[in-house]
Specification:
Blueprint: H1 8-18, H2 28-53, H3 72-81, H4 85-95, H5 106-119, E1 123-147, E2 150-156, E3 180-181, E4 186-194, H6 200-208, E5 217-221, H7 227-236, E6 241-245, E7 277-278, E8 314-317, H8 319-328, E9 363-385, E10 389-399, H9 412-430, E11 437-444, H10 447-450, H11 452-460, H12 462-468, E12 469-479, E13 485-488, H13 493-502, H14 506-510, H15 518-521, E14 526-527, H16 535-542, E15 546-551, H17 570-577, H18 582-600, H19 608-614, H20 619-640, H21 648-668, E16 690-692, E17 700-702, H22 704-711, H23 715-737
Parallel strand pairs: 3-7, 4-5, 5-6, 6-8, 10-11, 10-12, 12-15, 13-14
Antiparallel strand pairs: 1-2, 1-9, 4-9, 9-11, 13-15, 16-17
This protein binds 2-acetamido-2-deoxy-beta-D-glucopyranose (7 copies).
């Protein structure tokens, strides 16, 4: 369907011809007639004038004078039909065929831009920032025994993931070595101590049992908290280096011990797989650590990055490389299995590991980490589909960079889905569609190191985003299991429910159950947003309601996912993760449907009641939200009715009211920003409701300021945060109850 445009020129020429007839010197009768005629004509002109400026929503489809817009149901149909498995597979194959570490692969940015343009996204540009980052140069880990003044080598760690014949990208010449993003340079030789998951509490347990980590290298497992915070706590306690390994005890029941074969022959963990990753202190602030709070444009002033990145070296290792170190500690220091249940989750008891704390006198490791720090361009690709309403923008985004050549799940399953959405939007545009609200597509660079591309872009455009952004929809891992997983601002929960209800679950469909939607199969848990992906700057820094979702949930019976490893490859995806690429297509549909509903419905599909209820105990906010949502829904019903064209004043009044409601929805979450931010060096985090946990990084805290003050037992601060929260809630409540 083509949009019907009223010629503006015709409108303008209309007026001058009428005006002379309205002069006072004309006869009374003709004057009265002229007045009536003039009234009618101005009425008509005003109607015509009003409609072109209020065209976003189809509301008078029978009149040829008004733009006829494609109904949402038709747009949704295009979104449901366009994404294809075979296409998603091709995109995935492209992205995962070569290395694309943050700031290292311009051709993938160009390629993404070209595809979006080819599909018909009207405005696409590459937006670049100069970011302080590091790249691996060399590394070494040796286990040594003191022998007089010298050392005897007991074990030389391989620090390498073996190339597999059946998995071509694991064997690339230019594959990326194992290392930690933002790790410090260093060459240390010291005794070492085992620290379980390296959480704040694990270190407390060690200290309370008399195990001192000062001057030692800390050896700990991945899991539970963001890896950078393990390094931070070790550094704070005086450790000189950190080694983090992947223990099969965290792989659930799919282990070699339980008889499963390891990748590439089966679903269990390859024992030489290594989890790369960033060791930035994520919960203290993401983005370029030398430009906190402002964009890394060429030539900007840069600051000391040390509050945000480690000063002690660290390396990620496989459990094969950890085994000799762990067994060397047997019988030395404390038997940590006695510290409690939480210390008994290790999966290597059968390999003669007793999980002793160490240190073992005279047994040391030599940890050498050499990285190169540079300031280098990172490339975001930003696509824009201008809508009728300029100051209500829906943003959807995914990052493109990966730790390895692969990245078939993280993040390029999302990138493949984003391309299929761009293609769907292109189809709609070809049929004459222009969205009611503006839609932005983002392909971020440098997410893995610390949400670099998205954070710098958000900081760069914060003024504009503050007044225009309605919501940000993030997909990082789009598909790696059949388990749908979502974290969201409750304002957006209805959108998630609606979209997941419309998409059939691919596995259930394959079994013949075509009525089972993703929603039906899903556990209905909407988690609290923390950090760990690109929504962070939107939600936690600017108060833009966000969603983070994907088929990336834990599947107890599914294959082990080789996170940030060479084995998160196209081959793994095709064989184990999402054979047939059905879940790639499912996430594209869900994501696209959400964007469409947000961009197209006259009343923004927010649920303030859900937000207020999620904050519990704040009664007047809940009741104000309920009233507001009810009014919004009443108005949505009114607007859905056919109002005759001549009744324009009623229509105008409704539209003005709709506009007021949408504005209030848009600014609602902004009421929860506290300009000074959180305490203790976490000032970048401005949201009083959402922030990553200070010592967890990934998982979200509700009322983080208050929580931290409570944890620290600082009652002055607790009272201060109660006042700050009360104030935000009062502002939000007042806004919602205010006149429309
Ligand atoms: C960028 O990625 C593509 C594949 O997606 C690959 O062919 C190319 O070699 C990579 N470029 C660099 C500089 O690594
Ligand atoms: C690291 O330190 C060890 C001993 O402290 C030394 O033997 C070795 O040469 C150093 N390595 C490098 C690359 O400097
Ligand atoms: C831990 O070891 C360091 C250095 O050996 C020492 O200075 C410190 O006092 C020790 N801490 C405790 C609690 O024993
Ligand atoms: C360590 O403690 C656990 C739990 O109490 C116990 O089962 C195990 O036998 C102990 N190991 C050694 C070597 O004493
Ligand atoms: C969303 O779902 C609700 C409840 O099922 C329904 O009333 C509403 O019409 C849906 N909205 C859209 C835009 O699909
Ligand atoms: C909004 O959220 C509330 C609380 O979760 C829920 O009861 C209500 O049904 C939601 N409204 C809509 C329109 O879905
Ligand atoms: C509590 O926090 C405030 C900052 O808000 C600080 O000035 C004060 O020293 C803290 N009190 C204690 C006992 O730590």
């Amino acid at each position: 369907m083509k949009a019907l445009h009223i010629s503006e020129k015709q409108d303008i020429e209309f007026w001058p011809r009428i005006e002379p007839d309205l002069g006072p010197s004309v006869q009374a009768r003709s004057s009265r007639a002229a007045l009536v005629l003039g009234g009618c004509l101005s009425y008509l002109a005003l109607s015509l004038f009003l409609f072109p400026s209020w065209p976003p929503f189809r509301n008078c489809k029978h009149s040829k004078w008004h733009r006829e817009r494609m109904p949402l149901s038709m747009l949704e149909e295009i979104m449901m039909l366009t994404p294809q498995e075979e296409e998603a597979r091709k995109h995935s194959d492209y992205y995962t065929s070569g290395p694309h570490l943050g700031g290292k692969n311009f051709s993938q940015a160009m390629w993404t831009k070209e595809r979006w343009e080819e599909y018909g996204i009207p405005e696409v540009e590459i937006v670049s920032y100069d970011i302080y980052t590091n790249y691996p140069k060399s590394h070494r880990l040796g286990l040594l025994k003191a022998k007089g003044d010298d050392y005897k080598l007991l074990y030389e760690a391989s620090l390498e993931e073996p190339a597999l014949e059946e998995d071509p990208t694991t064997a690339l010449k230019d594959r990326i070595p194992t290392f930690h993003g933002y790790s410090a340079n260093g060459n240390v030789t010291a005794e070492f101590v085992y620290a379980n998951y390296g959480t704040y509490n694990d270190f407390e347990d060690l200290l309370s049992h008399g195990v001192n980590v000062t001057g030692k290298v800390v050896l700990c497992k991945y899991g539970h908290i963001f890896r950078g915070l393990k390094v931070k706590r070790a550094q704070d306690l005086g450790a000189v280096g950190v080694l983090i390994y992947s223990d099969p005890g965290d792989d659930g029941k799919i282990t070699e011990l339980n008889g499963y074969k390891a990748y590439p022959d089966g679903p269990a963990r390859n024992k030489e797989s290594v989890q790369r990753g960033s060791v930035q202190f994520l919960s203290f602030g993401p983005g370029d650590p030398t430009t906190p709070g402002y964009a890394s444009k060429p030539g900007v002033e840069r600051q000391d990055p040390s509050p945000f990145i480690p000063s002690i070296p660290s390396l990620p290792i496989s459990y094969m490389d950890a085994l000799p170190l762990l067994t060397a500690l047997n019988g030395h220091g404390k038997n940590t299995s006695e510290f409690g249940e939480y210390w008994r989750t290790g999966g290597l008891y059968h390999k003669n590991v007793q999980y002793f704390s160490g240190p073992a006198k005279g047994i040391v490791v030599n940890l050498h980490n050499e990285v190169e720090y540079v300031i280098t361009p990172h490339w975001n690709v930003i696509g824009k589909i201008p809508g009728y309403i300029k100051d209500e923008t829906v943003i959807i985004g995914n990052h493109r960079d990966a730790w390895i050549a692969g990245g078939a799940a993280d993040p390029n399953s999302g990138s493949a889905a984003l391309l299929e959405i761009a293609k769907s939007f292109g189809k709609m545009i070809e049929l004459g569609w222009k969205p009611a609200r503006t839609i932005l597509l983002a392909s971020w660079d440098g997410e893995e190191y610390g949400l670099l591309g998205s954070t710098e872009w958000v900081e760069d455009h914060q003024k504009l985003l503050h007044t225009t952004a309605l919501a940000y929809l993030n997909v990082d891992v789009g598909a790696r299991s059949p388990v749908f997983s979502v974290a969201a601002n409750p304002l957006l929960q209805d959108l998630v429910f609606n979209a997941t209800q419309k998409v059939v679950d691919p596995n259930r469909a394959q079994q013949g159950h075509f009525d089972d939607s993703v929603y039906d199969v899903w556990n209905k848990k909407v988690r609290t947003l923390g950090s760990g992906s690109d929504y962070t700057a939107f939600q936690d820094h600017l108060g833009i309601p966000s969603v983070d979702m994907g088929f990336g949930g834990e599947d107890a019976n599914g294959p082990v996912y080789h996170y940030h490893s060479n084995y998160d490859s196209f081959h793994w995806m095709e064989k184990f993760g999402d054979p047939g690429f059905k879940y790639h297509v499912a996430i594209a549909k869900i994501w696209g449907l959400m964007a469409l509903q947000l961009a197209e419905t006259p009343i923004v599909s927010f649920n303030a009641t859900a937000y207020a209820s999620s904050l519990a105990c704040l009664k007047d906010f809940v009741s104000a939200s309920q009233k507001f949502d009810a009014e919004a829904s009443r108005l949505a019903h009114e607007l859905a009715k056919d109002i005759p064209w001549w009744n324009w004043w009623k229509k105008a009044a409704l539209w003005l009211k709709a506009r007021a409601i949408n504005q209030k929805y848009k600014y609602l979450d902004r009421a929860f920003l506290h300009p000074e931010g959180l305490d203790d060096g976490r000032h970048w985090f401005k949201h009083v409701v959402y922030a990553p946990g200070k010592w967890t990084g990934y998982s979200g805290d509700v009322f983080p300021g208050l929580l931290e003050a409570g944890r620290e037992g600082n009652w002055t601060n607790v009272c201060r945060w109660v006042r700050i929260i009360r104030h935000s809630v009062d502002v939000a409540t007042k806004e919602l109850s205010g006149p429309l």
